[in-house]
Amino acid sequence: MVARDYLTASRGLLAQGRVELVRGDVRQASEKGWGAAAQIVKAIAEQRGWDHRGHGHLHAAVRRLRDETGDQEIRRIFQVANSLHVNFYENWEDTQNVAEGLDDIERFIAKLEPIALAGWPS
Q1: From residue 79, how far is each of 27, 96, 118 by CA, in Å?
Q2: What are the extents of the domains in the chain?
Q3: Fewer CB in a 10 Å sphere around the end CB: N or C, the chain?
Q4: pTM
C-alpha cells in the first residue's frame, strides 16, 4: 500500500466504525477506530520511510510524531486507539465509551492529516 492509500483507509475505517456503532456492534466499531488511527500513522510512516509493520513500530512512529510536534495529545489519543483495539477482544466497553473513543480518533486524524498531506505535491 502507498501512503495515500493508508490515508484514504483511515477516513473510511472511521466512517465504518460509526456505522458499526449505530448497528450496535461495539466490538467492530472499536476495531475500526483502532484501524483508522493505525492507518493514518502508517500513511506518515510510509511517506517518511519509517517501519510500520507491527504494533511496536506504530508506537515508535507516534512517539516520533509527538516529539516532532510537541503535541502530547497525539500519544494520548493513540493510547485510546490501542484501548479500542483491546476492546475488540475483550468487549468490556459500552457504547458511549466507544463513541467517545471514535470522536478522539477523529481528532487524531485531524491532527495528523495535515502532516501526511504536507509531504505530497498539491
Answers
A1: 17, 17, 25
A2: 3-118
A3: C
A4: 0.95
